[in-house]
Amino acid sequence: MKHIDIKNIFTDKSCIGQEVTVCGWVRTARNSKTMAFMAINDGTTLNHLQIVIDKSADIDFEDALHLGTSVKVTGTAVEDRNGSVEINAKEITVLGSCPADYPLQKKRHTLEFLRTMPHLRGRTNTFNAVLRVRSVMAEAIHQYFQDRNFVYVNTPLITGSDCEGAGEMFQVTTIGYSNDYKNEEEYYADDFFGRRAGLSVSGQLEGEVAAMAMGKIYTFGPSFRAENSNTPKHLAEFWHVEPEIAFAELPDIIETAESMVKYVIRTVLDTCPEEMKFFDAHFEKGIIDRLEELISHEFGVCDYTEAIRLLKESGEDFQYPVEWGCDLQTEHERYISEKVFKKAVFVTNYPKEIKSFYMKQNPDGKTVAAVDLLVPGVGEIIGGSEREADYDKLVEAMNARGMNLDLYTDYLDLRKYGSVPHGGFGLGFERLIMYVTGVSNIRDVILYPRTVGSIR
User: Fold this and answer.
1) Mean pLDDT across the stretch 441-455?
2) Cα gap 299→297, rounded to integer Å
3) Which of 33, 135, 353, 424 is the most buried (most CB within 10 A)?
4) Are the beta carbons of 121 and 449 closer than 8 angstroms?
């Protein structure tokens, strides 16, 4: 049906004085003796459009005043007393009625309550803002890489290899539970692929394949991890941004990561001022200033060994003890970024025992060319590395972890046929959204969160 987006009613001044048609859901309504009012929203803007109803104009409106009702309104766009726009209604059509048990009756609901109704929470101001910022950030990521000659590739969601080597994969099978097989070998031989398969935890390995042909690539899609972690930072299904760059060493990877993060944040601040004001008012006071501060400085760089020294000499009473060889916890990461550097910082050259098999081994024999980006207020948001380009060293690292090399023949072949220095990083998209919006639980920045015990 022909209508104008409500966002355009607010931004296009030529609408003033014109007859327009808009559609939306009723967010608030009130009825007085001679006038009635309702505010509607169609999802294109955070601002609600007020509809003014003159009862003397013989407009059929009573059924339209119920919250949640979808309506089509035709009327004249006029400037209101605050300099904004409202519609003097001439005709109102109810497109979908809404009963009195519509659950979004209050102006404010807790995020925990809204998680019980993911199919409706998008109609609230919070999720209206979150989902629009998410959309802008996704477009900015694509734009950043496309402008720099990266090729967008789609890596498999079903795979026979575990990229991280941690065994936290969801199994993919057409057989399911069965007592008809003597062992796993017989079971998988009879399964759809003839071998064990799972949902991908990362597109990195296949991304490296593409980078060895296209030079610079990025993936942007879902990843799946069967990690029994019920924290505000973990999802079983999340969106993953993973560039891979050929002819690149660790400093090149760091440069790309910093540039991309700054580009995305700048885009959101410029494109979504109303949404960011909303998050500043309701989720994190000063978040706009914090983001402006973050992108106005060069990010720091700190070697892991130096970071451990700084933590041990800090005098802080950390919950998790700090020793060389430990994996940095969130409290350690935040101390480094917030107290020591007071800005975003890359920590590099981690012990090889706590990092993945594919990371380039440094000459010291103890560390790998890994990098994590730590930001104030959150901790790690990016993890990456230069990849091991030497065939023999890669095989040695895989054997040390007891990995089945037969599952990685394609990956190993890349080191045999024209290997080059290369690297990349992974960005958990939802974690970056959390950082930009100030929303503290990852379940509240995705349409349908998938977590332990939850598959609605």
Assistant:
1) 94
2) 6
3) 424
4) no
